[in-house]
UniProtKB/TrEMBL annotation:
Pfam (any one): DUF2189
InterPro entries for this protein: DUF2189 (IPR018692)
This protein's record includes keyword Transmembrane helix: yes
Name of the protein this chain belongs to: DUF2189 domain-containing protein
Organism: Azoarcus taiwanensis
Amino acid sequence: MQSELRPRSISAASVPRALAAGWQIFRACTGVSMAYAAIFAVIGVMLLWGVARIGLAPLAWSLAGGFLLVGPVVLAGFLSLSAAVRAGRKPGWGDVIHGYRQVPRGLVGLSAVCVLLYIIWLTDAGILYSFMVGDTGAGWRMMLPVSEELLRFQLGAWFMGSVFALIVFCISAYSVPLLVERRAALVAGVAASVKAVFGSPVASLVWALVLGAAVIVAIVLPPVLTVILPVLAFAGEALYREVFPG
């Protein structure tokens, strides 16, 4: 098992190759992938509308950006769709449901940690907002740094969020597929993921920047998430298979 979990080092060139592979898988299951991703796009729109409705629009960036933290929770469905494509079958909702039915306990525990970090980030962002802004009459324009206070708040919130996102990225980038395919238990999977991330620092940095940029685009244009989310999920699996072949 230890030799199996020894990660291969990859270069930054692996990232565009993985994105191309992710796009090919997406094209093979476009309908169900977009429909599945649309669930999270709708949830995101409702959350953004809700915080603006109660006058807390500046918190929308932290709320939506936190998807980088809870994203691993939704990967089981996409990995199951990818498995159906690789098996030569036509993917459907049954594959998504099957993916969650087969989720191992380790992934449940990892998801709980990701959700906990998300809650901590939102709590910290809320505290920072109350001290630095405190305006509960904010409208949509308050999502932009239209004042010095808002600019300092957004920079502070994103700095805190980037720390949490880095932690989640390191522990989940490769551990999720390792757990789903039952190639490792929770501790071994997380350790292998961290080792893989630091074993290919340039590629990991490029991949993390791609994920971060995609989330920002999705915040501005939520419907785009229906394409971005599945492509990135399938691309992440392609990277995993390059780092942990076999």
